[in-house]
Design brief:
Distance between the termini of chain B: 43 Å
Largest interface: A-B, 13 and 16 residues
Subcellular location (chain B): Cytoplasm, Cytoskeleton, Cilium axoneme
Domain DM10 (chain B): 1-89
Number of strands of chain B: 15
Radius of gyration of chain B: 21 Å
Number of helices of chain B: 16
Structural class of chain A: mainly alpha
CATH class of the largest domain in chain B: Alpha Beta
Largest sheet of chain B: 6 strands, antiparallel
Helix content of chain B: 25-40%
InterPro entries (chain B): DM10_dom, NDK-like_dom, NDK-like_dom_sf, NDPK7, NDPk7B
Strand content of chain A: under 5%
Radius of gyration of chain A: 79 Å
Number of helices of chain A: 2
Order of helices and strands of chain A: HH
Shape of chain B: globular
Shape of chain A: flat
Largest sheet of chain A: none
Oligomer: heterodimer
CATH superfamily of the largest domain in chain B: Nucleoside diphosphate kinase-like domain
Number of domains of chain B: 3
Helix content of chain A: over 70%
GO molecular function (chain B): ATP binding; nucleoside diphosphate kinase activity
CATH topology of the largest domain in chain B: Alpha-Beta Plaits
Family (chain B): Belongs to the NDK family.
Number of strands of chain A: 0
Distance between the termini of chain A: 110 Å
Structural class of chain B: alpha+beta
């Protein structure tokens, strides 16, 4: 039974180890494979990046060259264009010079210029004439207009004068009537006002007398009242003063008696303390004398005991020595 | 106060083999995210800005990658979010049949333009039995046609999310009068104006049907096989940033227009661990290894198996050339017609990943189409 169990166990262990080993091996293989793949991938990518770099360089170079070529082409075309333009200009100039050098042509030209100037002068003279006549006409027109205006104004002024005279004559009578009516009105008004003021004065006088008598009565009544108030105040004050005095006297009396009692008590106390102190002092003195006697006795006994032994019984204690102590 | 969406999300912790429930708060205005652990009553992640996430990424059933951790949104955490989103953000499921696969790029372009969000996608080859199971309980006349169409070659199943998604596709496909409504996206209407497209797209008609079809297609219970060939083919991954920028359709169109054929396709939301494992060979080789990993893990990516239409040519070499240099700046200078030159912006955001080692094509394809399946 044990042997079988042992064998089973070892078998199981072997199997377990075998599987573990296989898994480990596989993982190792996978790792190696992965590394190999990574190397290959790196190579591929590196190669590609190099290739791309080269291509980029080539592209850049191409672009630079094409730009250069373009620039050169442009310069060349511009040069050719300029040359052509120069040539054309030269041709033109030559033709011009040739024409200028030709005598017949020059004569013809001068004659033409002369004719043109003469024509121009004639035209100028005609223009001037036209202008002068125009100005004259305008001046005449102005003069006519001014004359018309002056005449109209004169006519207007004469008509206005006439009208004014007629209007003044019509209005004279009306104005006189109005003035009289106004005067009457003013007189009436002043009379009525005078009457009214006289009545008013009378009324004011009567009212003034009445008011004065009333004021006097009021003043009298006020004085009476004030007198009564003063009287009552005085009596009140007298009563209050007497009451306060009485109170003060009572209070003083109480204070005095209390103070006296206190003084008596204090004196009593001090007297008692003095007596007690005297007794205490006596007792204390007695006690001190006793103590001194006992000490003397003890010292005498000690001296007796150590007499002629050579022992030093009493010594002065050592004094500390230093700057601070001094 | 900024608008806040609240969701219940689950994270499967591999080390402990348990899925933990969290509350996710997404702040729409600040584009920020907060994660709360209701079990311990502690904040799991403080309010952090996540520029790579958008409001479109948040819906029940979506998977969100937060610093390499994949959170599955399972429910709405409050009534306000439920009222806002549950009404409008609807899922729908379509199958792009074999007959119009060459126009896949255009179809995806118009779907993206019409505000459809692609959440899942996979190319499969149906067997007769699988089709029978898929068509169980559907109209007989329609199903017989569909059966023959699906058997004729590989098809791509796509789960889409948009406002009134089911109605939009259904009415457009039926050329119904409602479809003429100006509210419907123009690009979608123009797409469905073509008869071949109408015949080449199958779409689920009701919400229950969407649920049934999507689970049949994407939950691997019925043994649907992807169409990966692993023979003179190469891998292309369309990176999350390109998908978020809406370039998925354009990139696929470019690929198919340049003598390449897509033989397998699958949309993945990779976890950081998987991304790191996938890019293992680049560790220590490229200085941008870590940003590359985080970019790949930042959202959904689409893996494509690509072959050259001319079988005499090496697909790996041709496609690598077509992708262009890794740095889009260099690509724009040297190879302006390549994918990375057109859609890339920096070394890590270079739109596509293609296999760089000739021996790794099979390995990478297997990893994305078989191992992660």
């Amino acid at each position: 039974m044990e042997v079988i169990e042992f064998l089973q166990k070892t078998d199981y262990k072997n199997l377990h180890n075998f599987i573990g080993f296989k898994v480990k091996q596989k993982l190792q293989d996978y790792k190696l494979d992965l590394q190999e793949r990574q190397v290959r991938l790196r190579n591929i990518l590196n190669f590609e990046s190099l290739q791309q770099n080269e291509e980029l360089l080539f592209l850049a170079k191409e672009r630079v060259e094409s730009a250069k070529q373009q620039r050169l082409d442009w310069i060349n075309t511009k040069c050719i264009e300029r040359q052509q333009a120069e040539e054309e200009l030269l041709k033109l100039k030559n033709r011009q010079r040739e024409l200028e050098n030709c005598e017949e042509y020059r004569l013809c030209q001068s004659q033409q210029i002369l004719v043109e100037t003469k024509q121009a002068q004639l035209e100028q003279i005609a223009e001037k004439k036209a202008l002068m006549s125009r100005e004259r006409q305008i001046e005449q027109n102005w003069l006519q207009v001014m004359e018309n205006v002056r005449q109209e104004r004169e006519f207007q002024e004469a008509y206005e004068k006439k009208l004014r005279k007629v209007i003044e004559g019509l209005n004279q009578q009306k104005n006189v009537a109005l003035l009289e009516a106004k005067k009457k009105m003013a007189q009436n008004e002043s009379e009525t006002l005078k009457k009214f003021y006289a009545e008013d004065d009378m009324r004011a006088l009567t009212l003034d007398e009445k008011s004065k008598t009333q004021q006097k009565l009021e003043e009298m009544y006020k004085k009476m009242q004030q007198h009564q108030w003063l009287k009552s105040q005085i009596t009140n004050n007298q009563l209050r003063n007497t009451a306060q005095e009485q109170n003060n006297f009572e209070e003083d009396f109480i204070f005095r008696t209390r103070e006296d009692q206190q003084i008596c008590q204090e004196l009593d106390e001090s007297h008692r303390q003095k007596v007690r102190n005297n007794e205490w002092y006596k007792l204390y003195m007695e006690h001190c004398a006793k103590e001194k006697d006992e000490k003397k006795k003890l010292i005498a006994e000690l001296d007796q005991r150590y007499l002629n032994t050579g022992c030093i019984l009493q010594q002065k204690p050592k004094q500390p020595y230093g700057k601070v102590c001094r | 106060m900024s608008r806040r969406l609240a969701f219940v999300a689950e994270w499967y912790q591999e080390e402990a083999a348990i899925s933990k429930t969290f509350t996710l708060w997404y702040y729409v205005d600040g584009n920020a995210l907060e994660v709360y652990d209701p079990k311990t009553k502690k904040m799991f992640l403080r309010r952090t800005k996540m520029p790579e996430l958008t409001e479109k990424d948040f819906f029940v059933g979506s998977k969100i990658n937060i610093f390499g951790r994949q959170f599955d949104i399972v429910d709405y955490a409050d009534e306000a979010t439920k009222n806002i989103l549950a009404k409008y953000r609807k899922r729908t499921f379509i199958i792009i049949k074999n007959s119009i696969l060459p126009q896949l790029g255009k179809i995806l372009c118009s779907l993206v333009e019409s505000d459809f969000n692609i959440s899942k996608a996979m190319m499969v080859q149906f067997t007769a039995e699988q089709i029978k199971a898929f068509l169980k309980g559907k109209d007989d006349v329609q199903s017989s046609i569909l059966m023959s169409q699906l058997l004729s070659g590989p098809a791509i199943g796509i789960e889409l999310i948009a406002n009134n998604a089911i109605e939009k596709i259904k009415y457009c496909q039926a050329q119904a009068k409602e479809c003429m409504n100006e509210n419907y996206p123009r690009s979608l209407r123009t797409l469905f104006d073509r008869e071949d497209v109408r015949n080449g797209i199958y779409c689920s008609q009701t919400e229950d049907e969407v649920l049934r079809d999507a689970t049949f297609f994407f939950e691997n219970e019925h043994g649907l096989q992807n169409t990966v060939q692993l023979n003179n083919s190469t891998l292309c991954i369309i990176k999350p940033h390109a998908i978020k920028e809406g370039n998925l359709g354009k990139i696929i169109s470019e690929i198919t227009a340049n003598n390449f054929k897509i033989t397998a396709m699958r949309m993945h939301l990779l976890e950081r661990v998987n991304c790191a494992e996938f890019y293992e060979v680049y560790r220590g080789v490229l200085p941008d290894y870590i940003p590359m990993v985080s970019q790949l893990a930042s959202g959904s990516c689409v893996a494509l198996e690509i072959i050259c239409t001319d079988s005499t040519k090496c697909s790996y070499e041709e496609f690598r050339k077509f992708c262009g240099p890794m740095d889009p700046e260099i690509a724009k200078l040297l190879r302006p017609h390549t994918l990375r030159a057109k859609f890339g912006s920096s070394k890590t955001l270079n739109a596509v990943h293609c296999t760089d080692l000739p021996d790794d094509t099979v390995l990478e394809l297997q990893y994305l189409f078989k191992i992660l399946n």
